[in-house]
Write a structure and sequence with these properties.
Keywords: Transferase
Protein name: Glycosyltransferase
Helix content: 40-55%
CATH class: Alpha Beta
Largest sheet: 6 strands, parallel
Number of helices: 9
GO molecular function: transferase activity
Radius of gyration: 16 Å
Number of domains: 1
Order of helices and strands: EHHEHEHEHEHEHHH
Pfam family, one: Glyco_trans_1_4
Number of strands: 6
CATH superfamily: Glycogen Phosphorylase B
Organism: Luteimonas salinisoli
CATH architecture: 3-Layer(aba) Sandwich
Strand order of the largest sheet: 3-2-1-4-5-6
CATH topology: Rossmann fold
Shape: globular
Distance between the termini: 35 Å
Length: 181
């Protein structure tokens, strides 16, 4: 599916509702977006489950009461998760702690650029080659700024980086590389 060149965009969070995964920071960041940002957002889909469920449900209810297009879903099976990626224009990774998240490689394989916190390997992964927008800080404020920057631009500008990253996560390419060592 080709990347969109202009808003409105669909944003996706797919992960555990746990402090390390930063879903609470995501909700705070969404509350900080201004109306011009929300005009560029068609929907935010929050999928998963975990120990922060009551905080997530409460935060989503607050955003929806304010008229924001936020959809809450539970855990998704593999097929439903793939469908969610295919609907999304941006994947949200607001993690406080991370290395190379599986959800990142899934996004790359399905052509979905990423908005992420600057933790673990994510700064390197998003920069070389460029495949998304990196928050300036691991905070709700930084993540809100990164979302704002992403939705003001074109997801399509990251298509070359997404295509280049496919080789990084292609099992056949990795196997050939290892066999040559």
């Amino acid at each position: 599916m080709p990347l969109k060149s202009a808003p409105p965009y669909r944003l996706l969070f797919l992960g555990r509702w746990h402090k390390n995964k930063g879903v609470d920071l995501l909700l705070d960041a969404l509350k900080m977006l201004d109306e011009s940002d929300w005009k560029r957002i068609e929907a935010v889909e929050i999928c998963g489950g975990g120990p922060l469920e009551s905080i997530v449900r409460s935060g989503v209810e607050e955003l929806r009461a304010a008229g924001k297009p936020v959809v809450l879903r539970g855990f998704l099976d593999r097929v439903a998760a793939e469908e969610a990626f295919l609907r999304a224009d941006w994947l949200l990774i607001p993690s406080r702690v991370e290395s190379i998240p599986v959800v990142f490689s899934d996004a790359v394989k399905l052509g979905c650029p990423v908005i992420a916190m600057p933790v673990g390997d994510l700064p390197r992964l998003l920069d070389d080659p460029p495949c998304g927008v990196l928050s300036a800080s691991a905070s709700a404020e930084g993540f809100a700024d990164a979302i704002s920057q992403a939705v003001a631009g074109s997801a399509q500008e990251f298509a070359p980086g997404m295509a280049a990253h496919l080789k990084t996560f292609d099992l056949q390419v990795v196997a050939r590389r290892l066999a040559c060592m």
